[in-house]
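Quick one, tokens below. Sequence please?
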């Protein structure tokens, strides 16, 4: 079944549905195809390397960050259903229409996550989270800063050995679609994805342990030394969030990007990295916390807020909760 057929099938389960979310998801599929095509040809079209500018986080922008951001924005604009877009690459929200009723959406996205990996041909991805407007929303900052639990759909596209679109809505399980390059169509290859209850690997940048507090260091040691509940674990860290998360979704385990003594907020962004993948993790039977609080219950105080993140199998995340709420 293609992604479009799946979306239409879901729509048919809701007789009163007017098809807006279906249209939006179809345009997301279009953005995914366009970005996948651009990423796969980047070495030949001169799109590798830095663009010579920094984004709102003060990070170097890759040329592909900028192109992917524009392709995503174009696809959302073409849907005529997105009032506000918030991108990792743009300091301010982009307001696309002045329509605010229930049939319009706000979309948060990271156009190309893990972009420091592009030049070495390692997997990168696009992450998105979708919110439906509430009656009085007008795209003001306070309207945009909502808990991730209010997302009505979220997901990611992974540009790896194949391109995979992983998606869930508020009333579906997690579905994975693989892109058939020859005919340019996504097909459902991973139906109703479920994360194993406990994992065999843990994923963290251990070189940063010198910056962690004692509780975090002890926690990671428990995973490393096989003392955590469940099977002994091996280490796996790509350093590209989507790649590390996708493995965790399929095989179970835990991905951690903890806060640090000088940077308690951690590195990853709440609204367009942590929250969409927390939505996917929970709908697949996993969990995601910042050490204490569920990621989906957190309310940001600014658009580009960061959060510590522990995401993965239920048993593994519970181990983190026990260790870090004690401290
Ligand atoms: P990148 O810096 O390449 O953009 O969100 C940023 C991110 O990648 C994640 O994709 C990745 O998990 C993390 O940073 C890697 O950070 P470290 O290099 O500090 O491990």
């Amino acid at each position: 079944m293609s992604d479009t057929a799946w979306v239409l099938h879901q729509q048919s389960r809701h007789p009163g549905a007017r098809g807006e979310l279906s249209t939006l998801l179809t345009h997301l599929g279009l953005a995914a195809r366009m970005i996948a095509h651009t990423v796969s040809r980047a070495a030949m079209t001169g799109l590798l390397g830095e663009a010579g500018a920094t984004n709102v986080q003060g990070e170097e922008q890759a040329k592909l960050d900028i192109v992917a951001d524009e392709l995503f924005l174009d696809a959302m604009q073409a849907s005529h259903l997105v009032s506000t877009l918030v991108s990792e690459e743009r300091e301010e929200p982009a307001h696309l229409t002045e329509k605010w009723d229930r049939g319009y959406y706000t979309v948060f996205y990271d156009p190309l996550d893990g972009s420091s990996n592009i030049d070495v041909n390692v997997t990168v991805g696009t992450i998105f989270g979708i919110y439906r407007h509430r009656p009085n929303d007008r795209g003001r900052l306070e309207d945009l800063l909502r808990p991730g639990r209010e997302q009505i759909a979220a997901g990611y596209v992974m540009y790896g050995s194949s391109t995979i679109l992983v998606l869930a809505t508020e009333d579906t399980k997690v579905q994975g679609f693989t892109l058939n390059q020859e005919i340019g169509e996504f097909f459902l290859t991973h139906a109703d994805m479920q994360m194993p209850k406990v994992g065999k690997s843990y994923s963290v940048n251990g070189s940063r342990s010198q910056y962690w507090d004692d509780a975090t260091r002890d926690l990671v040691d428990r995973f490393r030394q096989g003392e955590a509940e469940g099977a002994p674990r091996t280490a796996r860290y790509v350093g590209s969030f989507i790649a590390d998360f996708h493995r965790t979704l399929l095989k179970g385990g835990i991905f951690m990007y903890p806060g640090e003594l000088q940077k308690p907020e951690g590195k990853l962004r709440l609204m367009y990295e942590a929250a969409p993948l927390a939505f996917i993790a929970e709908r697949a039977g996993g969990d995601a916390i910042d050490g204490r609080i569920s990621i989906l219950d957190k309310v940001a105080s600014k658009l580009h807020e960061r959060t510590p993140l522990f995401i993965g199998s239920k048993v593994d995340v519970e181990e983190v909760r026990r260790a870090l709420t004690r401290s």
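The CA atoms of residues 11 and 19 lie 7 Å apart. The longest strand covers residues 105-113.
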